[in-house]
Amino acid sequence: GSTLEIKNLHVEIEGNEILKGVNLTIKGGEFHAVMGPNGTGKSTLASAIMGHPHYEITEGSVLLDGKEVLEMDVDERAKAGLFLGMQYPSEISGVTTSDFLRSSINARREEGDEIPLMKFIKEMDEVLDYLEIDKNMAQRYLNEGFSGGEKKRNEILQLMLLKPEIAILDEIDSGLDIDALKVVSKGINKLRDDQFGCLIITHYQRLLNYITPDKVHVMMQGRVVKSGGPELAQRLEAEGYDWIKQELGIED
Ligand code: ADP
Ligand code: MG
Ligand code: MG
C-alpha cells in the first residue's frame, strides 16, 4: 500500500488563504472521512492535491510514498496512483465514457502494455453490472446529460476500473437518493483491502452509515481541528458543529 502525507498545506485562491496548514496522513488499507461545514476548504483540499490550476500552494507539501506530488503534473499524479472524484464532475463532449475509461487505464500502464480491448470490455461490463449501471451509458459522452446520480456512479465506475492506490472522493454522496447511495457505497466498500487508501469528503454523516471510516477528521476554517473514530461522525450528526467551535473557541 501507499502512503499520502499532507503536511502543513497552505492554499490560496485569488489571494485569499483558504487552507491554513492542513495535516493528514492516509495509508493503504485505511478509510478516512473529512467532514466540516460548507465553505471550510474541503473541496479546496481535494482540488489542490490533484493540481487544479486555480489553487496556489503557498506552503507545505503532499507526499505520495515520499515523492512530492505538488511537483508532478496532473497526469503524473494519476499515474502515481492518485484518484480524485470531483464534487462536480465535468462533461467531456465527443469522448465516450468507455473510451475515456480505457485511455485512463492505459495512461497508468507502460507504453506497449495497454489493456487488451476484450479484457477491458469484460472488466467494464462486470463493474457496470455491479454498480447497476445501464450498459448504454458506456457509449454516451462522458457525463454529458448525466443526472447527478449517474455522474456519481460513473465516478465509482472509474474508481473501480482504475484501481488507484489512494482515492480522494469529494461529496460522492451529494444529491444521491438512498438507492444510489447504497450502490455507490457498495462500490467503495468492494475496494477495501490492505492496499487501498481512501479519503472520503462529506458534509453529511449519512454516507458513513454505509462506509465505516477508520478515522474521522473535522475541518473548519481551513484546518483539521479535530480527529477521532466513527463515533465522532455520529456526534456531529446528533449535535452539529457548534460544540467543536465552542471547545476550540472558534468564532463564526
Ligand atoms: P467546502 O468544500 O468545504 O464547502 P470549498 O473548498 O469549496 O469549501 O471553499 C472554501 C472557500 O473557498 C469558500 O469560502 C469559497 O467561497 C472559496 N472558494 C472556493 N472556490 C473559489 C474560487 N474559485 N474563487 C474564489 N473563492 C473560492
Ligand atoms: Mg461545499
Ligand atoms: Mg466542497
TrEMBL record:
The gene is sufC. Coiled coil: none annotated. The keyword Repeat does not apply. The keyword rRNA-binding does not apply. Residues 4-246 form the ABC transporter domain. GO terms for molecular function: ATP binding; ATP hydrolysis activity. It comes from the Bacteria. Keywords: ATP-binding, Nucleotide-binding. Belongs to the ABC transporter superfamily. Ycf16 family. It holds the Pfam family ABC_tran. The lineage of its organism: Bacteria, Bacillati, Bacillota, Bacilli, Bacillales. This is Fe-S cluster assembly ATPase SufC. InterPro entries: AAA+_ATPase, ABC_transporter-like_ATP-bd, ABC_transporter-like_CS, FeS-cluster_ATPase_SufC, P-loop_NTPase. It comes from Lentibacillus salicampi.
